[in-house]
Design goal:
elongated, two-stranded antiparallel ribbon
């Protein structure tokens, strides 16, 4: 017997299927579902930290969301670390814990390159200097 449940949630359509009497014992299904649940909880927690670090980058550089994420990804590649690890270290540094030296160097290089490439993520008006010309 198979039962399909459709749950409408905002823009997403989620479909869950439960099969009874299949080949896998119910205990294995429960273990698999618990493991998946734990994995999703960890993903949500790391996403919150990544979003917080992205907001910090947006304030510091000033730039848009996509550019801030790209900057974090570049730092994580240079440090050979996962994105959630870099984000957590940046948030911890904001709260007073020192940022590891290799991440400081990677962040400095990335922000300098980013600033040179984008000139502040289009946050400055085009047309040269920000100084006002005197009449």
């Amino acid at each position: 017997m198979q039962r399909t449940t459709v749950i409408q949630q905002e823009r997403w359509e989620l479909r869950a299927e439960a099969t009874w009497g299949g080949n896998a014992p119910a205990g294995q299904d429960v273990v698999a579902l618990r493991a998946e649940n734990d994995q999703l909880r960890r993903a949500l927690a790391s996403r919150a930290v990544i979003d917080q670090a992205r907001g910090m980058i947006m304030i510091l550089t000033p730039c848009h969301r996509g550019a801030a994420r790209k900057l974090l990804v570049d730092v994580s590649r240079q440090c050979d670390a996962r994105l959630p690890e870099v984000a957590a270290a940046l948030v911890a540094a904001w709260e007073g814990k020192p940022l590891p030296e290799h991440m400081q160097r990677a962040m400095r290089r990335t922000v300098q390159r980013f600033t040179a490439d984008t000139q502040g993520c289009d946050s400055r008006p085009s047309g040269g200097s920000s100084r006002r010309k005197r009449p």
